[in-house]
Amino acid sequence: MKRYQLYLTTLFLFCLFAGSNAFGQSDDISLRGTLVDNASRDPLSFVQVALYKPGADQPVTFSDTDEAGKFSLRAAEGTYVLRFFLLGFNEQEVEVDLRQNKVLETIALVAENQDLEEVIVQSSKFPIRSDAEGLTINPSQNLSNLGGTLLDILRNTPSVSVSEDGAITLRGSSGTNVLINGRNSSLTQNLDQIPASAIEQIKIINNPNARYDAEAEAGVIDIILKKGENLGTHGSGELTYGTRGRMNAGANINHRTLRYNVFAGYNFRRWRSVGERRTEREIFEDEEILDQQTNSTNENLGHNLNFGADYYFGNNIISYEGFFQTSDDSQVNTLYADLRDVDTNDLVLEYVRRNRETEADDGIDNALIYERTFDNPDKSFKLIASNSYRNQYKIQNIDIFRNSSEPLDENLNGRERAFTDEKRYVSIVQTDFTTPLASGAKIEAGLKSTIRKFDNDYVYSRFEENTQDFVDDPAVSNRFVYKDQIHAGYFIYSGSSSRFEYTAGLRGEYTFVDTYLANTGESNKQNYINLFPSLQTLYKLNEENSVKFSYSRRIDRPTAWRLNPFPDITDSLSVRRGNPNLQPEMIHSIELGHMANFENSSLTTNLFYRHVDGQLDFVTLVEDGISYSQPANLNTAVSYGVEFIGITDVLPWWNINGSVTAFRIQVDGSNVGEEFINQGFAWNSKLMNSFELPKNFSLQFVANYESAEIEAQGRDLAQYYMDVNLQKSFWENKGALSLSLRDVFDTQRFAGNSLTNTFRQTFYAKRETRILMVSGRYRF
């Protein structure tokens, strides 16, 4: 059946069903049955089931299967056609001669052919699904995500690592293109503000084809927000409360009829944390050792609202999707520092810097989408226009206590202040068209224009004793404006046979970059054209086993904050600054994989290789006793490795899913200095055990391990942690109460070391990660 007709039919069925409830017939005959997945034999829940008179376009009655796949209908005596509607499965119908109460034999629905997007494990109960492109994550199946954010989901995702400051790496490579509902958005700059409860699923595409932007070394992370697809009115609410007064509350609702669908979701988050960071640095020439310790407290209050609507008319769908985000962050960081002579241990310098910082973030994302469907489901047209805006306003008040080890009022002898006003704008127009050919092949083509502007205005001032007022320092204050335009077009040709499927594509991108430094008047303009070929193939060895191969050429452009040369001087002896001379990385990525799909388990094995020219990495340089951390283009970086992702039902009540990713990284930064050459082996593993216990209890253990990993000048040390979650379900799984203990053994921390010809450095950072939370959820 045509896809659009399926949408309309299911919507229409609900309206008729609602009316039929009011005028039920007392002499009706009962018809019952059970639906299962033909491949996995798992019960199919929430399938729309309808009973028609032969030749009729309107159903006599309509219902949904329950969570066990069972349905029950009542109708007058007669001959009928029973039809089933579930997206992703072929339409199926059964002739029924209804003369008396009847129970049908189990009916198996067959999944549609999905070409290169074939799902290896169809059952929705699994938190991870593996396909030819990458992974699909279902956050609701991992209880550790309750009360968390997008970063908490990614921490428990195979191949993904999240650093202390929220930076994401995939298979050891940084630089990811994060999308919201398939679109670029300025709101993705702060991923810790997107609540887990607002996310429907996450797609991770390690080696994307030409349909996607060529941006990002490591691949694409697409965040799909909840909007609601089922007929009628549906909703849910969630409340989480944890130690240190942490709280997360959210609700979402949607209402869908024959003509329209409207949806909205709201989330409030209050997150408090404490932490410490220790650094020791020895500069060999100066023969001095710097010891620093920073204690921090933080509180974040955030509000998120996603909303939208779909309108259906004829073969057309017009949709609006919106997302609003606002948050207020306040923190106090107190830095204790002392500088000592290496030989005598005599104190050379000591001071305390206390930074009271507040930050307000506001952002909104809007998208208008038009879709045209056709009689052939392989033919489609889509047009998207979107705009997003984010404003970050930060105030820093820094008290300095020189020649003192205690931040007491009587020791205060210096004050500094800084204001940061950063605005981000992203506008996109995109069109995509897909059509089948007479030969059975398919072509896709599209155009996309992305226009961005980042405006960072930074004002720094010092308190002058003689005037008793703050005076701006023009040597540090700056305004940095970054603009770019990326205009792209792509073409994809794909075909398939009974065993072999392939997709070959080519994407072209024209890039224009313009940066402007207001206080010096410096302007830097670049423009270039690049072509990005891609290839994906899938060969089915048999019903259970498939092999895949993919190749793509990609680019990773330096971000605005990496290009901004002006320093962050929160710590006057350890300064972080950008580099306006950065050039984009060029990446070649290859992947070879095997996918095995069995009745109750699946195993995916991937071999991957990535070569990067102009690798962007942070390096530390020492000048006049001050260390400057800044990004630089290194010659090359090569990474290669293997990944295993497995899911299995050990017993009907015990499920295990886990992953192991092992890789080797080689970095050549000899263009910066001979000490910027490094190589090493690293691996990480994630394991989740889920148990369905009696009395509707669920128990879950989630463990993570990340080995030591090399950087250009050193290495980050290994880290590991485990979460435990217990859940009790009520009211036929409509309600649930959960208890979650994160980082049970309080082992999660970040640590590392660096060694060059001029200095050595070690660091250790520990936030409060052992957190106890109680969550309640209800859906209708």
TrEMBL record:
Coiled coil: none annotated. It is found in: Cell outer membrane. It holds the Pfam family OMP_b-brl_3. Residues 147-220 form the TonB-dependent receptor plug domain. It comes from Cyclobacterium xiamenense. This is Outer membrane cobalamin receptor protein. One of its GO terms (cellular component) is cell outer membrane. The keyword Signal applies. Residues 372-778 form the Outer membrane protein beta-barrel domain. Residues 1-24 form the signal peptide. Its main location: membrane. Keywords: Cell outer membrane, Membrane, Receptor, Signal.
